[in-house]
Queue: 3 jobs
Job 1
Amino acid sequence: MIVVAVAALLAAACGDGGSDPDAAAAKPLRSDQVSFTATRLGGGQFDGASIQGKDTVLWFWAPWCTVCRAEAPDVVEVAAEFDGSVEVIGVAGRSEVSEMEQFLADTGTGGLDHLVDGDGAIWSQFGVVAQPAFAFVDDSGEIEVFVGALGRDALTERMRALAAT
């Protein structure tokens, strides 16, 4: 009984992982969604307005999320495939900076740009309530948010479609 309860709690804490990849709805990008600044992991400031007019994927993750850790190599690999056409930015939340930095070291994701969202403000602006999640922002200003893990093939397909618009 305890094992079942713990498993259910972990699944809920890391998102449902079973969301329908076609269920995300496209909505116009609101100016308040990209009106944010954040500190980059590793230092420096990031201005959210810099993603306007660019195909961008925001990957929402938490360092203690086992699903996020498992999908990290796929995110890095797919990001490299689309380098120059789709920018991938990690948005780390629900933890301390030292734990976020350890996640980067453990998963090999340090080559991507990552933002510190310790208070969850950026997550809230994009309607993200669980991790992992992805916000697909196209250059025309539409956004799709998908909560759950996508896997390499589904992420590649989504990014291919994003780059084609």
Note: Confidence is low (pLDDT under 50) at residues 1-13, 16-27.
Job 2
Amino acid sequence: MLAREAQGQVAVASAKVAYLAFKELFGSQRFLELAEAGARVQRLLWASTGTKNPLYSDVKYIETLIGPDTVNTIPVDTLTAFRDHGVATTSLDKDVAKAARVMGHLGDLGINIDQVTQQLEDEGVEKFNKPFDTLMETLTQRSRGVAPVPAHRA
């Protein structure tokens, strides 16, 4: 039963739990004092949230990750699907008890969420590093007056 409840829910549950922590941090008295001095909320970023599993709704991660002070980068196909049949309503603060329950039982299923999170973070950083390195190389070459070689020809 635990595995069935967690299947396809961990990413959203993790985001909901993170959003709760975010709201607690930026709603704290300490941050309110900083805000009075000019500090601004650092928004949460949900990156590349297209649905990869064809068994799930093509707008699953868009509809479930909507909340104030968040940013969501999505593939064009997902944006098109959302424009067609998505529902825009605040959802990050819904079903939070279920999200906490899902996250709380991952250890019982043999899932080390810290290890999984680290792996996903490492892979995500690498996916951003390569384009960044390419951009920096292009800028360096252009600043020297050298025309860069297109990536597909390198």
Note: The longest helix spans residues 113-143.
Job 3
Amino acid sequence: MASLNCFVDDEPLTTVNADGLIVATQTGSTAYALSAGGSIMSPNTAAICMVPICPHTLSFRPVYFPDSSVLCLQVPSDARTAATCAFDGRNTTTMHPGDYVLVRSSPWPLPLICHVSACSDWLRALKCKLYWNRRTK
């Protein structure tokens, strides 16, 4: 179980007790966040989402913040164990009690190449990949 103190713009939010925590933007890690119970986020939404993985309380649910927010995730100094932090599932590092990571949106947005428009391409992909409202009659 991970234990993380969470701050948003230097304001304490909560201490997460969960199997893990996903932090994602609208163009990164959204499928992973979705599989853990997060919402689908439009690529035009300027936000950062925080999605707990199997939280150990019923009151902590996915939370979305403006993309101008800075999140601080800290392993509490009295934590029983270290935590592993993975970046896009590739690079990992061990966070020991007292260590923290700051998360913020990049000032350089990811340019997207669109067939029609960002909105229509995204909606078409959602309908196709998720089989929305398709069932046999």
Note: Residues 2-110 form a domain with the Tumour Suppressor Smad4 fold (CATH 2.60.200.30).
